[in-house]
Write the structure tokens for this entry.
Amino acid sequence: MRSDAPDRPLPELIWQQSLPQIGAYWVHEYRSGTPLPTELWPVNLTLNDQTFLLSVKDQGQRVQFLSLQENAPDAGHISQPKNHQAWWFLQDIVPAPAPRNDSQSEPDQPLCLLADGLHLATALHICEQLKAHCALTVIAHSDQGFPFPVKPARFLLPGFPPEAMGAATLLEDWGIPNRLCARQGQPGCFEGDLSTLKAHWTPPEHWRLFDVTRFFA
């Protein structure tokens, strides 16, 4: 369930640079007119249907978006969408744990993020912010390629189809196991989308699955 966050505008975003990535992807970087802590930026922030929030850096002063557009959208002042999806925040995904004694401590439930297409940006943003706080896994699908080289995975993923050993190096550098899916037969990827994958892979029962596309429904 999403937070009952106040209806307030986000800071003005001022374009700084656009960086080409692999394939048709771009990273557009903006400077925030007013620094805003990372946890107050909505994880489902978009500038349009092809430009999704990727990263918030430097205490909220630098904001990056992953896009399929070469030209950076004019961000300006962003206000909460009306009659559409609500804002979602990091605390809606992994609430802050209640204080407890060491004797009561239990490991957090592993969280597996499912991402389709440009929603990969959302999964990457969530992972960057939560990687130090919980056990994460990412399964991503794209039929437009990925904005990074597909490299052999270093981490095992229980029960995952063995022919699909491609992974995102950035996530692995963060200690996050991940696998990639593509319907066009991209080497190293599971051949099919996330729905097809369900017939070939069952995640461990104790994992919590979270499809980030729900933020945009």
The mean pLDDT is 88. Residues 12 and 33 are 5 Å apart (CA to CA). Residues 13-81 form one domain. The chain has two domains: 13-81, 87-93+108-211.
